[in-house]
Design brief:
The structure is a homodimer. Chain A is of the alpha/beta class. In chain A, helix 3 packs across helix 9. Chain A has a 7-stranded mixed sheet, with helices on both faces. The first copy, chain A, has 2 domains: 142 residues, Alpha-Beta Complex (Aspartate Aminotransferase, domain 1); 240 residues, Aspartate Aminotransferase, domain 2 (3-Layer(aba) Sandwich). The longest helix of chain A has 26 residues. Chain A contains 12 helices and 15 strands. The radius of gyration of chain A is 21 Å and the shape is globular. The termini of chain A are far apart. At the A-B interface, helix 1, helix 2, helix 4, helix 5 and helix 8 of A face helix 1, helix 2, helix 4, helix 5 and helix 8 of B.
Amino acid sequence: MEVRYSERAGLFQASAIRNKLFDNPEIITFAAGKPEASLFPLGGIDKALAEVMGGEGKSALQYGPSEGLAGLRELIASQRMAACGVTTTADDIALTSGSQEAIELSGRIFVDEGSAIACENPSYTGAFGALAPYAPRYVPISMDEDGMIMEELEQALRTDPDIRMIYTIPDFQNPTGVSMSVERRRRLAELAAEYRVPVIEDCPYGDLIFEGERRPAVKSFDKEGWVVMLGSFSKTLCPGLRLGWICAGKEILEKYVLAKQGMNLQCGTLDMCLAERYLSLNSLEEHISALQDLYRERRDLMLDCVKRYFPAGVRCTHPHGGFFVWMELDPALDTGALLLKAASEYKVAYIPGRSFFPNEGSSSFIRLSYSCVDLATIEEGMKRLGAFVTEEYKKL
Amino acid sequence: MEVRYSERAGLFQASAIRNKLFDNPEIITFAAGKPEASLFPLGGIDKALAEVMGGEGKSALQYGPSEGLAGLRELIASQRMAACGVTTTADDIALTSGSQEAIELSGRIFVDEGSAIACENPSYTGAFGALAPYAPRYVPISMDEDGMIMEELEQALRTDPDIRMIYTIPDFQNPTGVSMSVERRRRLAELAAEYRVPVIEDCPYGDLIFEGERRPAVKSFDKEGWVVMLGSFSKTLCPGLRLGWICAGKEILEKYVLAKQGMNLQCGTLDMCLAERYLSLNSLEEHISALQDLYRERRDLMLDCVKRYFPAGVRCTHPHGGFFVWMELDPALDTGALLLKAASEYKVAYIPGRSFFPNEGSSSFIRLSYSCVDLATIEEGMKRLGAFVTEEYKKL
């Protein structure tokens, strides 16, 4: 059978994160950016479900509006957006099937084939997957410990008139764990307005802060509406409901809603009713506080293990929140080529860093996630990985 | 603010079906193709939910596989696909967020800009919305009372080498209610193989048959894998779970799953767990039988009302299943222009037929749905609509 596919179909690649290799239960994996399932608020969700099915059951199973349920949009505006310093209303919120879908829709409405997207270098590999159908050119912007470097971004905006959007993860970035400074957030909002290029501010991890004060969203500095913020319940409530949202001004938001309607009509109605009821009955802030404690402890242990089990030359980031540590090995090591050996011989897995670079990039990085691995397993897994890396360093 | 959108974004239009005009409770609307909510099997769904949350609760809230849960895919293969004469296994099934999304993914993997899609004329307007990002050219194929005319399709396939897919709704088609004959189904499968063009067989209504024997799916005549069948739980269980599926051979299905993964990772895990449990605990066939009785009665009344309340020159189809009656008024009448008057003066609404024609098309058709309107309201609404149409005929 020789099927004729679209040219676009040739651009789709399996996610480096959703690799079936990681499903082997003998392997300790730091690959998945999954939240810890034992902390899902089952009691609160059960209660919310009972209320939904007892009350509005039939409407919870029926079609619903493409922009999402009004009550849920209100709660997102008043609770989640307020938590990151953005004052807004339900009119500026639309629901998506996770923020993954919102990234896809951003490419759909802003990007033509060959036009460009500026983003941090490295950035979320799943975003490249979501944007692949639109065949963009990437303009990677360097980062330091304060996030995307604004001088480099401005230089790119000045010289490349076909940059159609700036994709950024300012809080506890995936894959580096690095956060953007407040000063740069303000500057990014200014640059977006000055160069009339929308910023897609992807913020799935912002609530999961371990120390210090939460930084206001880039969106909070947005005066004219050039910042589109993407939020998600996947890391705070649970990912199985597939609920994310877009916060944007009326004109841009309407484009997103039309695009979402054509794609799959709407988010799951029961999922939206459940989230609405849960947020009405419970304090998500309290729940988030428990998540912060758990993930902080895991991060602490992982960083401690790096000191104890890894060669002195190995460097890694020190995230103040979120799920990820970004580790740099000796430039001579190819972490992609080494993954199979790590998994088969040392029974430990990670995501090779290469897939997080939109264009060329180093092969000596790995992304480690501590989010869904308990303390004993982090200890054991890091010991294994450290032994593996130590062995590889000896061969250098 | 002058935002620079993609060229593609200019192609998106609000769905003619999801028109907010129809939300006014004073208006009796035959517009929505919604299922009747009072027949959602709340008891069975409650029980299934309780089992899911009591047992696998945490995994039901976690990320899940992009192709969908294995258990649900098995039940779809053994129950739903068997019901339309297709012998298959879970390996050939992948879940999508409603069949709307599966239509979108079909365009994504088969259609390049300007390449062509053959489809019934008229066809589902929502499919045009789903496919809009891929800017296809449409090759509309005429229908008669046995569905798409195969001679005309073959002529098109022979002369237009850039037809990339054939989109069809063989059962109780949207908007006409017409079904394809068994002979033509067999022929369509042959033509697909002969011309090496995939058929996208969209089958959301096939279970809802009112009389006679269910016709085997086009997919049941597929020997080499050129037919991709799209199924849905939206019309048999409920639409709020957003669960549809694709049945296709391994190679094509893998493309769909990769495309779905990039788009939004996966369907809702809780939704999939709930459907799996529901199908395990209950007979969906029995439930479908109750739906058939309800919708048959509504169809009967609507067709009877056409005879009683409408001018003699008005013609309409006689569907043997599904949700829709397709009515043709005098060619001088523009049903799009008349909708506002019908809604504001006669308090009755329908979908103007124009949007169901992919290219040029007549403006004298209307789509009427009896699916979510009770008998008394059908009687009253058809009386109103008949009075309106009678008035308009007098002016001719």
